[in-house]
Design a protein that fits this description.
The complex is a heterodimer. By secondary structure, chain A is α/β, with parallel strands linked by helices. Chain A has 14 helices and eleven strands. In chain A, strands 1-3-2-4-6-5-10-11-9-7-8 form an eleven-stranded mixed β-sheet, sandwiched between helices. Chain B is mainly α. Chain B has two helices and no strands. In chain B, about 20% of the residues are buried. Classes of the chains: A alpha/beta, B mainly alpha. At the A-B interface, helix 10, helix 11 and helix 12 of A face helix 1 and helix 2 of B.
Amino acid sequence: MPTDDLCFASVAEQAAAFRSGAVSPVELTQATLDRTRRLDPSLKAFITVTDEQALRDARRAEEELRAGHDRSPLQGVTVAFKDQMLVEGVRMTGGSRVLDDVLAKRDATVVARLRAAGAVVVGTLNTHEFHAGPTRVFPYGTPRNPWNLDYAPGGSSSGSASAVAAGLCTISLGGDTGGSIRGPAAHCGVVGLKPTWSRISRDGIIPLAPTLDVVGPLGRRVDDVAYALAAIAGADPRDPTASRVPVDTYVEPVATDLRGVRVGVIEELMDPASLSAETIANTEAAIATLAELGARIERVRIPLLPRAMELMWALVMGEAIGYHRPWLLERYADYDTNTRTRLVAGAIMPHGVVDAAVRLRARLAAQVADAFRDHDLLVSPAAEIAPRLPSAGAPTAAPGGPSPMVAPPTYQAFNMSGHPAISVPAGFGREGMPLGLQIAGRPFDERRVFMAARAYEQAAPWYRQRPGVGSA
Amino acid sequence: MSGAGRATTGRTPNGPARSAPAPTARPRPRPAHPPGCIIPLMPYDESMVARLLEAQGYAVPASDLPEITERVNTALANAAKWDALEAHRDEAWWPFLEVPRAD
């Protein structure tokens, strides 16, 4: 198998190749590290590359498979982590100079579970500072989009998306408080899942807003993300908020039709005042594909949804300051200006604001839950195309579209309510930049979300296209 | 509490009349709020922000004050809009997550 094809192969393809002897875990890991050495100086997807440890992990995976010790389909598969998760022996920076001298003494639960599954850890990934975003000056390099280096990959899980998109790892983990997995996934043309709040342990992970934060997987294919979720989901004695609801079966044969599935299209997110005609048209095309597969499509309204982003920021400001206060007192100047002004604003914000946000959040969450009474899934655009980097000049608006500087509130409602939501590649917009479709499901019903996403992916295989970075 | 009492005009319980307090600065005029708004949230100014941050021990450069002030005032303005939606009058708002707790 050519090296590039190996780096872009799915988990299932890599697992089959390892077991047939066509390719070894060491070959995959070496190809991945070589590709990272070549491309990451431009992409800045990684903060730390753990090449020596990765090759040791790969050799162990190879020996185990040869001896018949088959841990899981993820054995020998390369994985990387947003630099907010403890990875034993590796510095954890949170994307900040504040933590530039912290060495992790143990793995976070999600890291330990992927290691136990036999995955090969290749490094930690670039992120907006303390996943608060948008960071203005990245201390570990400005992350770039592999589809066009003049564009950002989105955030805050910037490296988690760009590394997967560029074939620098097969799976990554990110964090999502207000869209920070789904946004970068959409911008980079990969799959990204925000699971049900409490589905995955958050032990060993720097928090932002605990009532909103989740960890989630990214991959190039829906099943890659499903394999990762199966490995990391479930109760954890180290995290009392991790649910004991049984972990479902997430990887299944592709459903060739969606007959009987009731899909609600969120009207507020198909509004030309909030999103460009290009993005809306792209989403309509994706929805038409779901209809061709047999899904019953209806419009649904969530009237408080336009308030979701401002609610999110109020809650983040209220919840984040406690964790950061000791560092802000000692090292205020080491924070990025965006992060520190947002955090200390939260310190002096009247409690009445947070109280009002909590109450309105509850009503928004109730409206989301109501929308699922008559629908199995809700869909919407995942995002506009990725933003241009400031160094690349002013962004160009889509004709007749809203300002590209104002992000639409496509994600936050599901953070407010706790429902799972996935972004899957759904085509391309202007300048060849990826677009995504967001599919949301009922709490702990990731299985149905994957089913629909998988069926759509088979009918519209956008994953076959690869970003230009690194092409001959 | 024994011995405590409200001071009467011009005289305290335990002594001669006190002189009238020195005149204070005129309070800033309160902005109008939308009908139905129950949280009177006045915008902050940079000097207020600086004092509040100093009281909490933060060493914030003056260059950060405009942005911090804007962030707080944006939140205040948003809260006034939320308040106008009368969410506080909704009695059935907790628990807000449909997600089951750990069993």
